[in-house]
Amino acid sequence: MNALVECIPNFSEGRRPEVIKAIVDAITQAAPVRLLDTSSDADHNRTVVTFAGSPEAVEKAAFAGIKSAAQLIDLDVHTGEHPRMGATDVVPLVPISGITMDECVSMAKRLGARVGAELNIPVYLYSAAATRPERENLPDIRRGEYEGIKASIATDPARKPDFGPSALGRAGATAIGARPALIAYNVYLTTDNVEIAKKIAKALRFSSGGLRYVQASGFMVEGKAQVSMNLTNFEKTPIYRAVEMIQREAQRYGVAIAFSELVGLAPEAAFIDSARWYLQLDKFEPDQVLERRLQGIPAASQMESSQGGEVNTFIDQVAAGTAAPGGGAVAAMSGALAAALVEMVSKLTIGRKKYAEVEPEMLALAQAAEILRDQLTRAVQDDIAVYTAVMNAYKIDKTDPKREAAIQSAMKDAAEIPLEVMQLSLEALKLAQRVAEAGNSNAVTDAAVGAHMALAAMEGAALNVRINAKSITNNTQASAYRDQVAALIVQARTLHEKITVIVEERAGLL
């Protein structure tokens, strides 16, 4: 399965939209990741960004965000309700699919080492990546905040970072770690007495004798006392249990809950659990949610688009008799369609009682396929752009000494884009195998069509790599391209054959 990691960096800035935008742009432009959410709070002076992608892409994007924040945020002048020790305060990595917690720990260590060495920022590894027990919990690392750590990091051995210098600059220190999904949830009280919120938080949090898997603090936000929580394991300590405890504790002080808010994203299961408990729907099943049943039905606008619009425009462009878009762009589009079919079959499986055991995997597959679909769709335009660059290079006057270098540079790009299409399409093929094995049996032939499209994308892209490699004068580089193509095609054909057998058996066609 294609590895998918979620990253939720917290930045110490929630008041300057231009700074937040610059950091988010740095993240999304550094690597092909999917931005899932951005949540800012002016009182906390903090922004939580959520994105997902392959391990390699997530590492690059996270580093870019940390670097941008270090350039734009000065902890010497920063103020806010939320505890903080760095411009990028914390960077959690969450395994979603196709990757283990141990592999995310390795990611955290690589990222931490790079941040320490290249950005000169002290890094503390926490949660599953912690190098010592006392650093497993983030609040323990952050105790004293920026000012306290700055005063003691050089002299206190307990403050020595895992990576980077034992000194704080204006970007402060950063905690990087691997952990399961966490829910950040805030409850506002009908009072402006922050001491009440602090007392409730103390009763609530596990470190003070409260609920397991709950971290809590009391703050003043927008004129109201707020109990701010992190639920580190919502399955063992669900949201409703924490809310009920807050409500009972609040009654002791003659106040109540005014409203609550979710910071960032949370798993759907957490809200289904709360709905089941509060409504006493003991026999409730997730597939009774209307939207889940409708997930596999395309919207009218999508149906109209499939009958015309952009699809026909692309087909017309291919048929126009111009050199681009050509076979390379069509190959990329085939790969995008393969990923789209995987996404479709996954969504047709989600919410069905018969497939409840594989639902978490199907949710992850759908998300992974969506990211691949976006990457391959972009590759359509990338292929057009690199072919145009090749044609422009050949139009340079033959007496210009820069002509040959321009041609070689363009040919290299023209080989690398279809090679990337092959690599992405192979990932789509791997996803197609899993939905063929475990997805909705009524859509198993759609998984097979996705596999056929992925193989077609790879075969077509392979031709483009090989033909462009012929024009590359660096024989070592050209040979490397051809070797990669050959290896990828062998994998694809073998995998395609397996998927065909799986589908024919499940569909009763043998």
Topology:
Elements (H helix, E strand, L loop, with lengths): L3 E4 L2 E2 L5 H14 L3 E8 L4 E8 L1 H18 L15 E10 L3 H19 L3 E5 L10 H5 L2 H8 L21 E5 L4 E7 L4 H11 L9 E8 L2 E8 L7 H14 L4 E7 L4 H11 L11 H5 L5 H7 L2 H11 L7 H23 L9 H36 L8 H36 L5 H26 L5 H32 L4
Question: What's the quick description here?
Answer:
The chain has helices spanning 17-30, 55-72, 101-119, 138-142, 145-152, 194-204, 239-252, 268-278, 290-294, 300-306, 309-319, 327-349, 359-394, 403-438, 444-469, 475-506, and strands at residues 4-7, 10-11, 34-41, 46-53, 88-97, 123-127, 174-178, 183-189, 214-221, 224-231, 257-263. By secondary structure, it is of the alpha+beta class. The strands form 2 sheets. Strands 1, 2, 3, 4, 5, 6 and 7 form a 7-stranded mixed sheet that branches.
Question: Can you give a write-up of this model?
Answer:
This protein is 54% helix and 14% strand. Strands 1, 2, 3, 4, 5, 6 and 7 form a 7-stranded mixed β-sheet that branches. A 4-stranded antiparallel β-sheet has the order 9-10-8-11. Residues 298-308 have low confidence and may be disordered. The protein has 16 helices and 11 strands. The protein starts with a strand and ends with a helix. It is α+β, with helices and mostly antiparallel strands and 510 residues long.
